[in-house]
Specification:
33% of the residues are buried. The protein has helices at residues 18-28, 58-67, 86-94, 105-115, 129-139, 144-158, 173-189, and strands spanning 7-11, 32-34, 37-39, 53-55, 70-77, 80-85, 98-102, 119-125, 166-169. The protein has 190 residues and is of the alpha/beta class. It has one domain (7-39, 89-189): P-loop containing nucleotide triphosphate hydrolases (Rossmann fold), CATH 3.40.50.300. A hairpin with a 2-residue loop joins β5 and β6. The structure holds guanosine-5'-monophosphate (5GP). Residues 37, 41, 72, 74, 76, 82-84, 102-104, 107 line the site of guanosine-5'-monophosphate.
Length: 190
């Protein structure tokens, strides 16, 4: 029988450095595919339908919910939905591809629940809330109110960290990258 692919799930509060770590993983470990989620948000500059996301109208997204097509979906921001389509994930796993998920905390836990031992769930932890606040401020995209909201949400999300298979503290970036890569390689070799 053909070998099934595995799932590697990354979840983190925003500002923890998850996207940077996921990018570095792709540069350093071969044989991984990015899991393309569906979303109702509009594409940003340079984003391509089917590559970063499947960009769907809200009615279409809701029809997928009704049909039970999602492994999980979340209203990550008010009015904006994100979800993992079963069909996409299963078709790639069935041809032996390993899939990397960049997904919010609740979604990450649900995907792990659904796939069990076939999945490795990683929580990317900022060193502390002050550092997280500084990183978010550094982006220059937040107002005081939105910054506080993100920090409050981060505190809540961090309370779920223990439910993940593994926690990587992103204090020193290169150390965190090496830790992520070695954990992924070990998981794939099992
Ligand atoms: P962005 O709009 O910046 O690409 O992503 C916003 C957030 O949605 C990120 O935290 C990302 O991890 C999360 N996200 C992306 N895809 C999914 C998904 O399929 N399900 C869930 N629950 N969250 C997702």
């Amino acid at each position: 029988m053909k070998k099934m692919g595995k799932l590697i799930i990354f979840s983190a509060p925003s500002g923890a450095g998850k996207t940077t770590l996921v990018r570095a993983l792709f540069e350093r470990v071969d044989g991984l595919d990015f899991s393309v989620s569906a979303t109702t948000r509009k594409p940003r500059n340079g984003e391509v339908h089917g590559r970063e996301y499947f960009f769907l109208d809200e009615e279409v997204f809701k029809a997928h919910i009704q049909n039970g097509d999602f492994v999980e979906y979340e209203e990550v921001y008010p009015g904006t939905f994100y979800g993992t389509l079963k069909r996409e994930v299963e078709s790639r796993l069935s041809i032996g591809r390993h899939l990397v998920f960049d997904i919010d905390v609740m979604g990450g836990l649900k995907v792990k629940d659904f796939f069990g031992e076939q999945a490795l769930s990683m929580f990317i932890m900022p060193p502390n809330l002050d550092t997280l606040r500084e990183r978010l401020q550094g982006r220059g995209t937040e107002t005081d109110a939105s910054l506080q909201k993100r920090v409050d949400k981060a505190r809540w999300e961090m309370s779920y960290a223990e439910r993940f298979d593994t926690i990587v503290i992103n204090d020193h970036l290169e150390t965190a990258i090496m830790e992520v890569c070695s954990k992924v390689k070990e998981f794939l070799s099992k």
